[in-house]
Design goal:
With 236 residues, this protein is of the alpha/beta class. The chain has a single domain, classed as Vaccinia Virus protein VP39 (Rossmann fold). The protein is built from eight helices and seven strands, in the order αβαβαββαβααβααβ. A seven-stranded mixed beta sheet has the order 3-2-1-4-5-7-6, with helices on both faces. Strand 2, helix 3 and strand 3 form a beta-alpha-beta unit. Helix 5 runs antiparallel to helix 8 and helix 7 packs antiparallel against helix 8. It is globular, with a radius of gyration of 18 Å. The protein starts with 5 loop residues before the first helix and ends with a strand. The protein binds S-adenosylmethionine. S-adenosylmethionine (SAM) binds next to helix 2.
């Protein structure tokens, strides 16, 4: 297990022109900015236009970072136009990750890097399991509203997916923060607010709402820490 130190993981990678697929509000872009040895530009794409505002605020002081609304299945970029392509915590948001990964490899230049970061569900501590269970409940509520959001993968399946891409120099690292306070008041308040939102979204589904309330109790009693994530970095 490695502590979360972006420089230790990405410090030997010159990013060049970087694409972050399914960037959301850009939390992995922050990881890239902290970790990569250098870069020319970072483009974050996401299908959800509502993410653009928060992304733009987060990187208002960074002319080298921009957001484009786009579906990951049809990247509107020429072949080989990026040096580094990344996807973080989103493989389980696609019906099938294979076509998205194929698109990412198409727009990456030969010899460029691919970075996959994905949390997984197995082998987690009791406090980390709270994070996984919350995630799986959020996914069930999202599916109720027609969104593609599956439960997170087991670690072995993520390894299988990245090994299947035939990358060279593949490095796989498991990341978690050993110093995270499982009862951090700020994190707990944010999660309780998220539980409130999702209980409201599950209106008319008493079983799903009860699952949320049980998770609220677990959060208060057991606490929560971020689930361990797998980071895979390879070249072609
Ligand atoms: C859990 S968020 C991950 C955000 C960010 N990458 C991170 O690591 O925090 C998943 C993101 O995938 C995006 N997404 C889902 N399907 C997509 C698609 N087909 N094309 C582009 N983005 C998509 C969602 O809009 C959401 O912002």
């Amino acid at each position: 297990m490695t502590a979360i130190d972006p420089k230790a993981i990405l410090g030997d990678v010159s990013g060049g022109r970087v694409l972050d697929v399914a960037t959301g509000t850009g939390s992995f872009v922050r990881f890239l900015l902290d970790g990569l040895r250098d870069h020319a530009e970072i483009v974050g794409i996401d299908a959800n236009a509502e993410r653009a505002a928060a992304f733009s605020v987060a990187f208002a002081d960074r002319p080298d970072v921009r957001f484009v609304e786009m579906d990951a299945h049809r990247l509107a970029f020429p072949d080989g136009s990026f040096d580094t392509v990344c996807v973080s915590n989103s493989l389980h948001h696609f019906t099938d990750p294979a076509p998205v990964l194929a698109e990412m490899l198409r727009v990456r230049r030969p010899g460029g890097h691919l970075v996959v970061n994905e949390m997984y569900c197995d082998g987690q501590s009791e406090t980390q399991a709270t994070h996984v269970l919350l995630h799986h409940w959020w996914a069930a509520v999202n599916r109720l509203h027609g969104e593609v959001h599956r439960e997170t993968y087991e670690r072995g399946r993520i390894v299988e997916i990245v090994e299947g891409l035939g990358l060279a120099d593949l490095r796989i690292v498991d990341l978690a923060d050993p110093d995270e306070d499982p009862h951090d008041p700020e994190a707990a308040a944010e999660l309780e607010a998220a539980i409130d939102r999702y209980v409201a979204l599950a209106d008319g589904q008493p079983e799903l709402q009860a699952r949320g309330e049980a998770l609220r109790t677990r959060l208060r009693q057991v606490g929560v820490r971020g689930a361990t994530q797998l980071v895979a970095i390879g070249r072609a």
